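Hi team, as promised in this morning's meeting, here are the two structures we talked about. I've kept the exact order from the run log so nobody has to guess. The first one is mostly here for context; it's the second one we should focus on when we meet again. Sequence first, then the predicted C-alpha cells.
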Amino acid sequence: MVNKSVLFVIPVLFFSGFLLYLIIWNLYYSFTDWSILHPVPRFVLFETYVSVINSFGFINSLSHSLEISGFMVITGNIIGLLLAGLLFSIQSHRYRTAVMSIFIYPLTISMAANGLIFLWLFNPNVGINWILGLLHLPQPPWLTSHYTLYSIMLIMAWAYSGIAMLFYLASFMNIDKSIIEAAKMDGATYFRIFRKILIPNAMNGFIVSTALLFLFSFRVFTLPYIISGGPSNYYAQTLLTYQYFLFVSSYFAQSSVVDTIVVAIAFAVVVPYALFGMKRWVHA
C-alpha cells in the first residue's frame, strides 16, 4: 500500500517542482531589465516594477481585469443561486438532470469557441443586431470601443455561471430534508423556503463559487484576445493579454513583472478565502 501511494505522489511532486521552478525563474527575470533594448539581462531590483506599475498599459489592463472579476463574482453568484433554486424546485430527477445539462453546457465549450461564436452573434450584418434591426429596436455597438469589455463580461457570465449553479445546488442538496418538509407542512411557499432556508445554508457554495469565479475571470486571456482581434486593443486589454503583448514585443522583464503581479494577486485573494472555507467546514 505504501509503495502504491508513493507512485501516486511522485507525479504530483514532479509537476509541483517544475511549476515552482517556473515561478522562481519568472520572479528572477522580473528583477532584471531584459528586453529588446537590453538583450543581456541586468539585475535592477524594483526598477522594472516601478516602470510597469506606473505605465498606462498596466493600469488600464488591471482596471479591466478587476472590473471583469467584480462583475463575474457578483453576477455569477446571483445567476448561479437563482438557477440552483430553479433546479432544486424540480422534483423529478430525470427532468432536473435534463435542465441542468442545458445550464452547464457552456462549460463544455472552450473559451476560444465561445469567442468565435459570439463574434458571429455580434456581427451587425448577420447577428443579433440584424434581428434587432428587423424589429426596429436599438442596436448596441457590441464590439466598438468600451462596449467590447461589456460584451466580454456578458459572454463570461453566460459561460461560467453554471459553475456557481453546481456548487449552490450541492449545498441545497445537503440541507436536511425534514426542515424543508416541515416548512411545507406549515404552508410556506417555495419562494419563502428559498429565502429563509436555502439561501442561509448556501455559504459553502458561495465560498467555492466565488473563489473559482474570481480565478477564471481574473486570469482570462483567450476570450478578450479573440473578441478584440489581438492583445493590443486597450479597450479590452486584461492583465494577461497585456502580459502577452509585452512578451511578443520583446519586453521580457516587464512581461515577467505582470505575470508575478497576477500570481501574487490570485494568491492573496484565493488562499485566505480557501483557508476560511476549510476552517468553516472543519468546525461545521
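And here is the second protein, the one for discussion:
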Amino acid sequence: MEMSVARAEDVLIRRPTIADWGRILEILEQANFHHIGGAEMPSFPLADCFVAENVGRVIGVAGYRVLSRTTAKTTLLAVDPEHRAGGRVGERLQRARMDHLRALGIRTLTTNADDPRVILWYERRFGYRRTGARVPKVESFGRGDAEEWTTLELDLSMPATARNRRKRRAV
C-alpha cells in the first residue's frame, strides 16, 4: 500500500490520548527516539506533547518540558518518514509547541539536536541560535553516528519577524 505525503492543510495538530501511545512509539522508533525510561529520555508524558494526525492516523509527535516559569526545553520531535517531505508536518508540530509555551509565559526555549540538517532547520525556520554547548550522549539515541547533542536556544519573547531579521544579519 503506497501512502502519499499529507498536505499541511490536511493535518490536524492536537493533544494525544493514551490510545495514540502505540503509534507514537512506532514513530519514535523510526528515529531511534523510542528508549523512553532510559538515561537520554527518562519520561515522555503525553500531557506535554502534540501529535499530528492525517486521516485518523497519527503521523508525528512533538514534546516539551517546562523547566521554570520562563524556561522550557523541547523533548522529542519525530514524523513518520512517509510524511517528512518538505518538513511541513514537523514545522506545524514545532509551531504548536512554541505557541503553547509562549502562551504559558515561557521566554527561553532550549533544544538539543544531533543531526546537522535538523540544526539548520531549527535555525532557518524558527530563529534558534547555537549556544556553543555540546552535550555528550549517554546511550544510543537519535543518530547512531553522533556522539553528542548540539544545544540551541530560542527567545520566544521576540516576535518572529525580529528573529528573522536577526537571523539574516548573522548570515
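Starting points for discussion:
Helices lie at 21-30, 88-103, 116-126, 160-170.
The CA atoms of residues 12 and 32 lie 24 Å apart.
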